[in-house]
Amino acid sequence: MEDTEIIKLYWNRSENAIAETAKKYGKYCHSIAMRIVRDEEDAKECVNDTWMRAWNAIPPGRPEKLAAFLGKISRNLALDRCKSRTAQKRETGQVECLCEELEECLVSPDSVEGQLEEMLLTECINRFLEVLPASHRVIFVLRYWHVYSVQEIADRFGMSKSKVASILFRVRKSLKKYLEKEGVLL
Amino acid sequence: MISEKLLYVLADVDEKWVKEAEKAYKAGILPAQGKASVQRDDREQKNGSPYGMRKRSNYAKYLVAAACIAMMGGIGWYACRNYLAAGDPSQQGGQEIAELSSRQDGQDPAGVSSQSEEAAEKETGNINVMTEEPFVEVSALLADNGGNVTELAMHMDGIQIGGYRALYENAPAVSKEVLRENRGASLEGNEGWYLVSGHRDLQYLIHDAGEEVNLWKFGYFQSKEYPYREVLETVYGIRSSDDILSVSAVAVQIDNTDAGKKVQAEVGKQVITDREDIRQLYEVLCGMTCYGSDRWDLIDTGAADDSRKKMLQAVRFSRDLTIELADGNIVDSLNYTGIGGMFYEFGGIAYNPLSEAEQEKIDRIFEMERSGKEFVDWSGEEVQTDTQTDVTGQKNGTAGTVIGTETEGMEIESSLATEDIPVDESTYHEAHRYSDEVEEVQYAISQAMMAGELPYVTESAIRENPVRVEVRVNTQDEALLEKLKAFDPSGDILKIVYSEGGFAIQDYAKEKYTKSTYAILE
Fold first, then answer.
1. For B216, phi and psi rounded to 5 degrees?
2. CA B293 – CA B333 distance, rounded (Å)
3. Residue ranges for chain B with pLDDT beneath 50
4. Cα Rg for chain A, rounded, in angstroms?
5. Cβ neighbours around A14 below 10 Å, total
6. Are A116 and B18 an interchain contact pair (Cβ–Cβ within 8 Å)?
7. A 4-63 → B contacts, CB under 8 A
8. Is the minimum CB–CB distance between A141 and chain B shorter than 8 Å?
9. Nearest to B11 among A75, A83, A103 (CB)
């Protein structure tokens, strides 16, 4: 079924909307969640929550690209779940690990969160990604959007782990410089 | 936490990047070019074709081949034309390739300058005036101005220059619009290849293929060996030492430990402006032969050795050069190692080892003073300070105190050992240089333990006292202990600690002299 038709089902509050969404994007969302939470049960719950979020968001929302919309929800839900799981176990988890890495992009990690304008930040990051060499961009997005581990990325592209880590390091440093230049103080 | 917020904000990045990464991961191939790959991928997806990297690389292959053929023809034609026009072959050095970058005599590498422009340049000596192009510093085109472009580059492409195929590395650059605005003269016969605005050298080129515009940095000639003079003249436009304004040298960042950074700081930055030094350096560079890339087997930086002292020594005797040219360009690819007595570049671009006389010149220019054949005495006051703060040395007054007291010709091993090892009760003993006897006893006992010959020995180590090997045992059986004592025929080294219930220490060596034992309750 086409995305527009699925969205129409949501707008008509038809329960088939969720069934059709699950049919078309279930595997996609599951793979995103699974990669982050690394647990079948947690991944399934993330995916179910994704359908629920979508149900609550459409209407009034009318996402232009349903796949991206759902993928984003799954990713963030999985990160949330990962975070809460780590907090319970009181150990360093995936999210903390990523956050630690991303701290290198910040001018001051202690800045007030309210200062951030998400839209502005997203635009900046998109512009930054635009000028990055494609290979670096791919590695950056795989790490911080898809949450692949450095080892997974290295294995996939036949690179050494240190090479991937070094590319990520440089990109993070460049992002920091770029954000500073653009006046986005994090 | 802000970084967490950033992580969540990253979820909102443009979907095309997410898709691009996903496709690359599925295909297991990293894209070779800039953002245009995304658009192309989208198009290919619409056509039902799979991830288009392989397809694109085929396309690129033909494009490059066509460009090479066209360029060869163009260069040949241009070189012949200038050869005949100049009427003085000696000026050209018989090198077609040299025509490409001869700024000094006003000839244009791309064959775009008119005769009047050349005349204008001769009059003013200003290339910017001649070309009527603004001179653009390449750093302004790099995505990360502070970064090392060579390290960032991952993809290569080649064009034919004279008799060589020159390989260029894709340099991370600013947007394609900015690159396009800063295109200089086109490379005749090579559609889409441009110099950087205001430049006459071939170090950086801009390739404009419509959808994709990229910046490329010269890497090397694809040849088993070639004279480096060709590169200096053709690519960098250096035709005499007068073209070099200055040479800056710092230690190569091959060791980022605290100790490594300390050595880098000690080496500092040296700026060479002495004309005679520059002339000598230029002469040595001109005489070098390059053996291409990925030839680490020919490069001896001294850093391949695992030991810390060798690594730090490699840092101390290394130089990362930045050559500032009279035309405003910067050449930053060369490194020098005094250990191997050779120049090299990252990527394993190897040059021949210098002759003794040449190395002497270069070492003198880079102020690599040596005492002894290989090692420099750089212990000085700092090491003395280390010695003074070395608890063990003061406490024991034994072998450990030799640290930092030797001077001429001393191996730097011991002083280095104290630099990055924290003074800690459990680890400080590692900072010592032990006597061969002590090490031999420790080694022999360790080997026997691993072979299961000493099951009653639970631990063996050199601890606070660097002239003793402390062995912990769980038996008091005399026969077994005799077997252990046999590892120390001199009886000066072994110290046995009994660890059953409370434990007792038997300093075998001490016992030998005092004939007494003592016990300490834990």
1. -125, 140
2. 13
3. 33-57, 85-131, 145-154, 371-432, 500-522
4. 18
5. 13
6. no
7. none
8. yes
9. A75
Give the tens place of pLDDT for each residue, B231-280. 998 899 898 888 898 899 998 877 777 788 888 888 888 889 888 899 99
In whole angstroms, give the CA distance from residue B60 to residue B70: 15
Q: Which residues pair with B205 in a beta bridge?
A: B195, B216
Instruction: Answer yes or no: pTM beyond 0.80.
Output: no
CA pseudo-torsion sign B197, B200, B204, B208: positive
Confidence of residue A106 (pLDDT cuts 50, 70, 90): low
CB pair distance less than 8 Å for A102 and B3: yes
B129 interfaces chain A, CB cutoff of 8 Å:
no
Which residue is closest to A64 within chain B, CA to CA? B15
What is the DSSP secondary-structure string of chain A? --HHHHHHHHHTT-THHHHHHHHHHHHHHHHHHHHHH--HHHHHHHHHHHHHHHHHHTTT---S-HHHHHHHHHHHHHHHHHHHHHHHHTS--HHHHHHHHHGGG-S-TTS-GGG--HHHHHHHHHHHHHHS-HHHHHHHHHHHTS---HHHHHHHHT--HHHHHHHHHHHHHHHHHHHHHTT---
Measure CB to CB from residue A125 to each of B10, B35, B147 and give the nearest one.
Answer: B10
Judging contacts by C-beta atoms under 8 Å, the chain B residues touching residue A139 are: 21, 30
Paired sense of beta strands B213-221 and B270-272, if any: unpaired
Q: Are B382 and B297 in contact (CB under 8 A)?
A: no
Q: What is the DSSP letter of B233?
A: I
The alpha carbon of residue B333 is apart from the nearest alpha carbon of chain A, in Å, by 19
- Start-end of H helices in B375-428: 380-389, 391-396, 413-419
Cis peptide before A59 (omega within 30 of 0): yes
Per-residue pLDDT tens digits for A118-159 = 677 788 888 888 888 888 999 999 988 888 888 888 888 888
Q: Is B17 on the interface with A (CB under 8 A)?
A: yes
- Residue among B7, B34, B173 minimizing CB distance to A98: B7
Identify the pLDDT of residue B286: 92
